[in-house]
Structure formats: C-alpha cells, structure tokens
Amino acid sequence: MHRLTSLFVLLTIIGITGCSLSSSPPKSEVDKGVNWALSAVIDWNYQDRNLFESYKITNQYTEKRTDGVAYVYDFEADCLVHNVFHVGEFGQSTGWAQALPKDDSRSDKFSGGDIHHFTGSFTLIKKGDKWYRQETVR
Asked: Where do the domains of the chain lie?
C-alpha cells in the first residue's frame, strides 16, 4: 500500500509540473534577443561582442499561440555607440554604430563612442529544440 501511495504522489507531481506551458528561455537566448532587437537601430560591426553594456527587462509576459508559447520582452539597454552618417538610395541619414571600449585591441579613432540609452522589444518562441526571435506584435 505504501508503494501505491508513493507512486500516486510521484505521478501527481509529474502531472502538475508537466502541465506547465513551457520552460522559459535561458538567459543566453534573452541576451541574443536583446542584441537582435538593438541591431535594428545600431550597426552591429563586432558580433563577437554584445551591442549592450548592460540591460534590464522592464516587462515580460507570455502569450499562448497556435504555434506555441511566445515570450515577450521589453527592455532598456545602455550601449557603447557612436554616430554614423549614411548616404544611400533614399538620401542621407544619421544613425548609430557599435563602438569599442578603449582597451579593445581593435579600437581606433573611428570606433570610440559614448554610452547611450535604448529601449526595445522582442518575442522568443521555441520550435522543437530551437528558440526563434521575432518582432513583438501589439
């Protein structure tokens, strides 16, 4: 009888934990999401470095969708950037490019910059074993 009770308790625990929607994305995937969202407004020249110096998640929630559970994140990030001037098909514009810290061996007079504050949003969704990033639709 004791084994039957233990088995029942074990199955109940498995059932409760197994009913959760999905496991949250690991921090490494959230970091990738922040970089991905920032790369829409900052030229990411050194992809071996994060675009952010630091960030904080200001809002997060999940949405159940037909294709799975979407994890939505809003964030604020401090990024080392410098101004760039773009000339293209549609005229001229200014923008941001990733800068390097002075102690980076690749740093030169063109890559120095200052810390600027950015905000953004992104969504993560898991398909199979892989996480995918996408724009947040509101």
From this structure: 25-134
Contact criterion met (CB below 8 Å) for 131 and 122? no
| Pairing relationship of beta strands 42-43 and 54-65 according to DSSP bridges | unpaired
Distance CA 61, CA 74 (A): 9
User: Which residues lie closer than 8 Å to 66 by C-beta, 6 or more apart?
Assistant: none
- At residue 20, the pLDDT reads 43
Mean pLDDT for all residues in the chain? 84
* pLDDT category of residue 14 using cuts at 50, 70 and 90: very low
Dump pLDDT digits (tens) for 84-129: 987 878 888 899 999 988 777 776 655 578 999 999 999 999 999 9
